[in-house]
Amino acid sequence: MKLFSQLILSSSLIFGVCLTQQCLSRSATAEDTLPDQVTSVNQLTDVQPTDWALQALQALVDRYDCIGGYPDQKFQGNRSITRYEFAVGLNACLARLNQLLESTTADVIKREDLQTLQKLQKEFAAELSILRGRVDSLATRTDQFESQQFSTTTKFTGEVVFAVSGAFDDDKAVPAGETPGSRGKVGDNIIFSDRVRLIFNTSFTGQDLLRIRFQAGNIPNFREATGTNMARLSFDSDTGNQLILNQLYYEFPIGSAVKVTAIAQGTLFDVVDTINPLLGSDGRGSISAFGIRSPIYREETGGTGIGISYNFNSAMNLAMVYLANEAYNPTAAGLFDGSYSALAQLTFQPTKSLIFGLTYARSLNAINIGTSSTITNDPFNGASNNIIGNSYSLAASWLINPALRLGGWVGYLQASAQDIPNDPSAEIFYYAVNFGFPDLGKEGNLLGFVFGQPPKVISNEFGVVDRNTSLHFEALYRFQVNDNVSITPGAIAIINPDHNSNNDTIFVGTIRTTFQF
Q1: What percent helix, strand, coil does the chain show, rounded to 5?
Q2: Secondary structure letter of residue 441 according to DSSP
Q3: What SS3 state is found at 507?
Q4: What span, in angstroms and rounded, lies between the C-alpha atoms of 89 and 25?
């Protein structure tokens, strides 16, 4: 009797060890997911001849053929089990004993053993009943999910942003040469606005991705209120809260190293890494359009094209993107006869904590990048309709330690007017540095700072330059309420806005609440 008690305890441990991984469905015809049944104790690589339970394990194999281990042929006999796990193991052994009783008339099972089994079965009757109920409930919920799920291939997610925002100053910013105050006062009313994104991610093979994103919002570009694009929020979107399609692409691999993205509606940074892991999300990162990514990724008209990403190895990647503005219009431009943007980026990540990106972009009529001065957006003062841009940027991000990440970028853009005599060119320069303190105060929280100079015309053969230098200061703190909700108060200060020292400093503040589902 004492030996049989040891056998039952050992068998329950054997099956109970597997409960959380494979053995829960042993009685649910899932034999193909279980480890092979052990026919000899010698098959268990971590069981030694000196182990105190060796005889019990041998008895389970020889008398009852009721023993199992992990797929790596280990027993893990020192692992603790719960009463529920014991119940599962006991139930499995009872089933095996019933099979023996039905298949043979020999005295395989002793009467005292059966009496012990009956006692154990009675003692764990409640646990066995609860376990059967849980399995039945799980099966019912699984059937219900399979019948009611949106799609077998599509995952639906979404993001909602609520923002309370405002801009503060006396007069709107004006370009160099204009009289301060000539464009009126800053619109300093506090506003409440929103942005909604509905995202459908579909995979047909498990390695491809069809992305469809709809967006609606009424968050304004603060240029109208302040006189400068430098005051823009990263998450602005004003469609009058009408739902529009603003992202549509299909991404698929070719072999193990190449990924191709066919873009019907998208951006350059749908394909390339913007090298800003902490602050690069417009819903959870930087609150300013300038602070979210290098301006080189905004040198685009947006639209239709193709992207290719090639991994040389785990540390180096080359990504290339081409986008055309009116690719859908056969009589006006098509893919290759109108405004376009072409970008190539070599990304190098020598360690998990350090990443660099060297980027080149060439564009036609796409240098209005939306975060710079009035002169930078149009350095030829409306006289050219054929502006070629050649841009160069270096970005980096370094996780100095788990509590501090340092990043930033520097960039240079040469714009050339092809339809003005002598093809005059303008040179534009910008830079930014950011600091992030992840998980400050709580996991998921983020304290962030951004400092930099928005794009500025530093020389111009056409004769128009930015005379002074704007400086961008930004601070934010994201409080992660739970897995789905975050609240981010933040503030932006623009000194010498629009690169004009005659303009007063402009302040923008916001409290952004983001819901993700």
Answers
A1: 25, 40, 40
A2: S
A3: strand
A4: 12
Q: For residues 303 and 300, what is the distance between their CA atoms, to the nearest angstrom?
A: 9
Backbone torsions φ then ψ of 278, nearest 5 degrees: -85, -40
Q: To the nearest whole percent, how much of the chain has pLDDT over 90?
A: 63
Among 164, 278, 176, which Cα is nearest to 228's?
A: 176
Instruction: Tell the residue number behind the tokens 């002598």, with chain if given.
Output: 422
Task: Identify the band that residue 368 occupies on the pLDDT scale cut at 50, 70 and 90.
Answer: confident
Q: Tell me which residue of 15, 3, 211 sits closest to 96, measured CA to CA.
A: 15
Please state, in angstroms and rounded to a whole number, the distance separating the CA atoms of residues 73 and 253.
36
Higher-confidence residue of 449 and 141: namely 449
Question: Within 10 A of 45 (CB to CB), how many other CB atoms are there?
Answer: 12
Helix axes 125-148, 111-123, angle to 10 degrees: 60
Residue 96: pLDDT band (50, 70, 90) is confident
Round to whole Å and give the CA distance between 18 and 36.
Answer: 12
Under 8 Å between Cβ of 229 and 264:
no
* Angle of the 2-17 helix axis to the 111-123 helix axis, nearest 10: 50
Alpha helices in 193-312 (DSSP H): 223-226, 289-292
**In this predicted structure, which of 241-255, 322-336, 433-447 has the lowest mean pLDDT?**
322-336
Between vectors from CA 163 to CA 233 and to CA 291, what angle results, nearest 5°?
Answer: 25
Pick from 196, 197, 199: nearest CA to 150: 199
Candidates 128, 134, 120; CA nearest to 87 is: 128
* DSSP H stretches of helix in 18-165: 54-59, 83-103, 111-123, 125-148
Q: Beta strands of 203-328 (E only): which ranges?
A: 209-219, 237-238, 244-254, 258-266, 303-313, 316-324
* CB atoms near residue 389 (< 10 Å): 22
d(CA 367, CA 325): 13
Instruction: Give the contacts of 437 (CB within 8 A, at least 6 positions apart).
Output: 403, 404, 405, 446, 447, 448
Rounded to 5 degrees, φ, ψ at 59 are -65, -40
Residue 139 neighbours by CB distance under 10 Å = 12
C-alpha–C-alpha distance, residues 382 and 211, integer Å:
37
Q: What does the pLDDT read at residue 84? A: 73
pTM of the full structure: 0.73
- Name every residue whose Cβ is closer than 8 Å to that of residue 142 and which is 6 or more positions away in sequence: none
- Residue 237 in contact with residue 506, Cβ under 8 Å? no
Distances from the Cα of 389 to the Cαs of 156, 295, 420, 460, in angstroms?
A: 38, 13, 15, 14
| Tokens linked to 453 | 């100079």
